[in-house]
């Protein structure tokens, strides 16, 4: 669980329309930039040194090439998991619970 300051900073950074939530496109931007950031630091994006990615876990996009149809499907599933109230937006409370 992320702390409040980190959660708000994350939301503010990727909330392109400044409505206080992340929609699917904004979430996709966040995930692809996070993966790019991790790759630049020597990882594959979401694989850890202690066991690799987590295929089958909808909370952690891990095993697909960025930009592939499978990757975007997994990102969409992850978004849906975190969109607890199913309003097609992730708010600060849903983000904090991620």
Keywords:
98 residues; mainly alpha; 4 helices; globular
Instruction: Please indicate the percent range of residues in DSSP E strands (runs of 2 or more).
Output: under 5%
Shape: globular
The largest β sheet comes out as:
none
SSE order, one letter for each helix or strand: HHHH
Q: Runs with pLDDT <50, length 5+?
A: 47-58
End-to-end C-alpha gap: 6 Å
Chain oligomer state: single chain
What would you note in describing this structure?
With 98 residues, this protein is mainly alpha-helical. It is globular and about 30 Å long. The protein has four helices and no strands. Helix 2 packs across helix 3 (69-82). The longest helix is centred in the N-terminal third of the chain and has 17 residues, at 24-40. The chain has helices at 4-14, 24-40, 69-82, 92-97.
Secondary structure elements and their pairing?
Layout: H1 4-14, H2 24-40, H3 69-82, H4 92-97
Helix pairs in contact: 2-3
Summary?
Helix content is 49%, strand content 0%. It has 98 residues and is mostly helical. Helix 2 crosses helix 3.
